[in-house]
Amino acid sequence: MSNYGNNITAIATHGRLIYVDESAGEDIAGTDFDNAVVAGRDSFLDFFGIDGIYRPGVLSRSIRYIPKYIEDDNLSPGSRHNSPILTIKCPNSQTLGITAEEFETSHTVSIAPRKGMDTRQFRMLRIVRQSAAWVTYEVK
Q: Where are the domains of the chain?
């Protein structure tokens, strides 16, 4: 699991679960761990999820996601300030989120960058990580 996922897990389990190794995207074979993560995915979305809209083309559909900003710490003095990178963690499901198989860089999402902010349109850039339950996308 990433550090971000570990923070969510620690909050949701009140610190009882410190670290559980998450399988890589290539290892999706329906292991016991993968099945448990998929079964518990809805509770994470209920607690941390935000509603958004996925726009793969003409048609659009509702999704749930967990946003995270990544600050650009590699700024040299006198250089132009880069905007922070936004990643969204979506369920790896066509009914709740966006699957890795349907992802294309021309697709957009209408999401709020932070909880409580207005939604705006972002272009999907790349897949950051993938597991049986989640796919993390970088958007800008």
A: 3-73+81-139
How many other CB atoms are found less than 10 A from the CB of residue 58? Answer: 5
Q: Give the pTM.
A: 0.71
Helix (H, G, I), strand (E, B) or coil at 50: strand
- For helices 3-12 and 32-48, angle between their N-to-C axes, nearest 10 degrees: 70
Question: What is the per-residue pLDDT for 11?
Answer: 60
Exposure string (b/e) for 13-50, b if CB count within 10 Å is 16 or more? eeeeeeeeebbeeeeeeeeebbeebbeebeebbeebbb
List all residues 6 or more positions away from 19 whose beta carbon is below 8 Å from its beta carbon.
1, 6
Q: Please report the pLDDT score of residue 129 as a whole number.
A: 94
First-to-last CA distance in the chain? Answer: 24
